[in-house]
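2024-03-11 09:14:02 DEBUG pipeline.ingest accepted 1 chain
2024-03-11 09:14:02 DEBUG pipeline.ingest length=242
2024-03-11 09:14:03 DEBUG pipeline.predict start
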Amino acid sequence: MMSMAEPIEHLRVKIFADGADIAGMRRMAARPYIRGFTTNPTLMHKAGVRDYRAFAMEVLAAVTDRPISFEVLSDDFAEMNRQAREMARWAPNVYVKIPVTDTKGRPSEALVRELSQDGIKVNVTAVMTVDQLRWIAGALRGGTPAYVSVFAGRIADTGRDPLPLMTQAVQLLKTVPHSELIWASPRELLNVFQADEVGCHVITVTLDILEKLPHAGRDLSDFSLETVRMFDRDAKASGLTL
């Protein structure tokens, strides 16, 4: 594992910005270490996006030289297929996010295979199990470039350590050399360095975690002193007394 005191640009893992705030995405596009972008319907809902196509066109006008993943909206595989083909025409840097199952738990294997074989760049999303990874690898084999988004952060939310699964995912996807593994839904800056250590190709990072990047490798004694000073400053500012 690289030293956290080294510059973030020296990481092997690629950092993708994850969000749906246009202003924030433009700021991230100006940072050379941001190698791509992802978004999803939940992030768009939080950002107040109401017109998907207009949002996508605005993003694509700002991000022309790096991959960006947009997600289909339907729960019907035939409609997902139609939407995926439309979205793939928006720009050559678009990857289409296909959920690993529909809302009834039925795998999207046939759809992923068809799209990949037809030259549609997909990002299979919401992946959390080894069984899912196995069929995804099979569906993508021989197809076009693709991402596989394993939601390591949500796995950690269940009290499970995601590192063993991510390590296994790296090995499984070596059989599909045109695919790249994404560590999705990270919860803290440490996850960036964990993803780098296990050999993930990409980690998606939200703006709040990206803002913590300047802390990477900081002297902990200095950071401790800064924290004490913060408490002292805020106590004075609030006028608290005993």
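2024-03-11 09:14:41 DEBUG pipeline.report The longest strand covers residues 94-99.
2024-03-11 09:14:41 DEBUG pipeline.predict end
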